[in-house]
Request: fold
Amino acid sequence: MQKVYSHENLFQVSNLKQLLEQQGIDCLLRNDQLRGGAGELAPGDVWPELWVLDDSRKAEAIKLIDKVELANDTDTWICNECGESNHASFEHCWKCRNEPRL
Ligand SMILES: [Zn+2]
Reply:
């Protein structure tokens, strides 16, 4: 079992779990309930975590997560031809040369 993601926002971690499960990757949430009596632990210690059960699918899971993270970033756009993430400064899709913003 491998940890692939951690974020302070449980909603975001849950979304990623759903996404991975849609791809057939079994995973589970840890720290999905906030512990009472905060103060002893640094905030990072109680962030919800996403774990992939099958170690061999870890790389695949991280790749998917990266893609979602990029899509959430306002500095990127998703090519409507091939679905790749592109940085905002790119005028063409780096992959297929499509120009979706024209
Ligand atoms: Zn493209």
